[in-house]
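Anyone up for a design puzzle?
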């Protein structure tokens, strides 16, 4: 584990109530934005009071909790509000695979938040520090697209191989992802993407952390005191072109044996992972339909009460990776992903979100996202593969999922 030079030995934290700031994303002064927004509420941050870089190891969540506990326990905190997200906060993004790629936690110098009508500003570090000037928004005018690790025909072959392994009993499900790369004529401004994503997908969690930007529909875990919430998403169809077509597609999804099986795998795993941590847990017997502007998902809301003082990162560690982004059995599916995808996912499909000093926080799965690096954006999309999967249909689903970030870059 590395604690970057931007960290101070002793953080000074001041949270104060402020008038409603309006659009939180519009308040971000720089492209290097930190954000977690849904329906206009949430938190945004900028600057760095501390950065914790965690190498790829199976115990990275434990290491993160230990480092943050030291940082937060030694902080001098003035927080009259004591709401989830007030006081010291760290934004985080973890790699999907515990054996490759770093994970990161960032404690910003400024956090602006709003929750249930209450707004606040948190200053971390030297309150007398002169803020750096805001930079104007800038939007690329031209984009050039290239295939990622696997072109379409090679990815369809990977799906065929996965289906064959499943039918021979090697595993029950695997999630295979693709990547695409966009090359822009000027640096890509994270704030522009956040504006577009939050406007088009208000019910999703629009996020940004260390270059990873997206709008995920999947809430991995929310902790507020001893209460936890999660949302299982598995089983997907594109929206229809007419109202009748849309209803037909949704009904077909709800009764699909393939999609219901995929959803059952994910819901069962969440139940198995959370039961040891909770003295009360409710997961519905039947999924519902979650309708987004471009996709409809099978969804199961989860609620529980923790048995002990587990932080939100403790629960994240128990859940990741879910069958919705990996497969089942987990170890077999992860091995097959490494064999067939031909790429390192990085932080795609890993947990992303925030945690405060009380251990509260919200974490989602980094889906419908892109990693931004200067003029380059690497997009990701994945599909759950089971015994009845058709390679052409899975490619079409992945193409639909790419459109979230493609539209954000093109609009």
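Challenge accepted. My sequence:
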């Amino acid at each position: 584990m590395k604690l970057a030079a931007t960290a101070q030995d002793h953080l000074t934290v001041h949270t104060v109530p402020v008038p409603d700031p309006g659009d939180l994303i519009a308040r971000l002064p720089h492209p290097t934005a930190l954000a977690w927004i849904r329906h206009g509420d949430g938190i945004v941050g900028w600057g760095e009071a501390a950065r914790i870089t965690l190498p790829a190891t199976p115990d990275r969540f434990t290491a993160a909790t230990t480092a943050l506990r030291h940082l937060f326990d030694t902080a001098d905190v003035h927080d009259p509000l004591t709401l989830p997200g007030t006081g010291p906060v760290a934004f985080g993004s973890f790699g999907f695979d515990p054996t490759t790629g770093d994970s990161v936690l960032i404690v910003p110098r400024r956090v602006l938040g709003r929750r249930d009508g209450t707004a606040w500003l948190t200053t971390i570090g030297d309150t007398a520090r002169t803020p750096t000037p805001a930079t104007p928004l800038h939007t690329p005018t031209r984009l050039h697209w290239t295939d990622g690790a696997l072109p379409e025909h090679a990815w369809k072959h990977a799906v065929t191989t996965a289906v064959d392994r499943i039918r021979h009993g090697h595993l029950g499900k695997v999630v295979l992802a693709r990547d695409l790369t966009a090359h822009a004529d000027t640096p890509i401004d994270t704030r522009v993407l956040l504006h577009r994503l939050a406007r088009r997908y208000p019910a999703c969690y629009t996020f940004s952390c260390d270059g990873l930007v997206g709008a995920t529909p999947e809430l991995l875990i929310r902790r507020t005191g001893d209460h936890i919430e999660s949302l299982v998403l598995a089983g997907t169809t594109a929206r229809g072109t007419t109202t009748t077509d849309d209803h037909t597609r949704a009904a077909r999804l709800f009764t699909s044996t393939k999609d219901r099986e995929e959803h059952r795998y994910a819901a069962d795993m969440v139940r198995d992972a959370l039961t040891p941590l909770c003295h009360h847990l409710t997961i519905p017997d039947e999924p519902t339909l979650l309708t987004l502007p471009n996709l409809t998902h099978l969804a199961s809301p989860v609620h529980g009460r923790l048995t002990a003082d587990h932080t939100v990162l403790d629960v994240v560690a128990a859940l990741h990776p879910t069958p919705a982004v990996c497969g089942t059995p987990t170890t077999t599916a992860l091995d097959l992903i490494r064999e067939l995808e031909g790429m390192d996912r990085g932080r795609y499909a890993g947990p992303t979100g925030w945690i405060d000093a009380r251990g509260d926080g919200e974490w989602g799965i980094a889906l419908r996202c892109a990693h931004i690096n200067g003029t380059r954006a690497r997009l990701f999309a994945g599909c759950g593969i089971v015994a009845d999967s058709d390679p052409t249909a899975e490619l079409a689903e992945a193409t639909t999922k790419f459109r979230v970030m493609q539209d954000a870059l093109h609009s």
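A detail worth pointing out: The longest strand covers residues 173-184.
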